Give the backbone structure.
Amino acid sequence: MDGVGIIVDMRLTEFHQLIQDEFGHGQGNWILHSHVPAGYDRTVEQLIEDGLSLRKLWAVLCDDFDVPEERRLGVDRGEK
């Protein structure tokens, strides 16, 4: 296989950083512990424990909270 069509998932630390950057500490924690994404019957935290793709979960959260397309990739931190 040549790699075309393969979607690489994100790391948990990257997912948490996206949550923090977009929603801040307080609302971000609430989202992780209390929000039940559209189409699911469990909280974000439970879905992570269940092994749901973090990339998919981030996309669902972006839709749930109307995150603009230009912010869905997170903050550009430049090269370190």
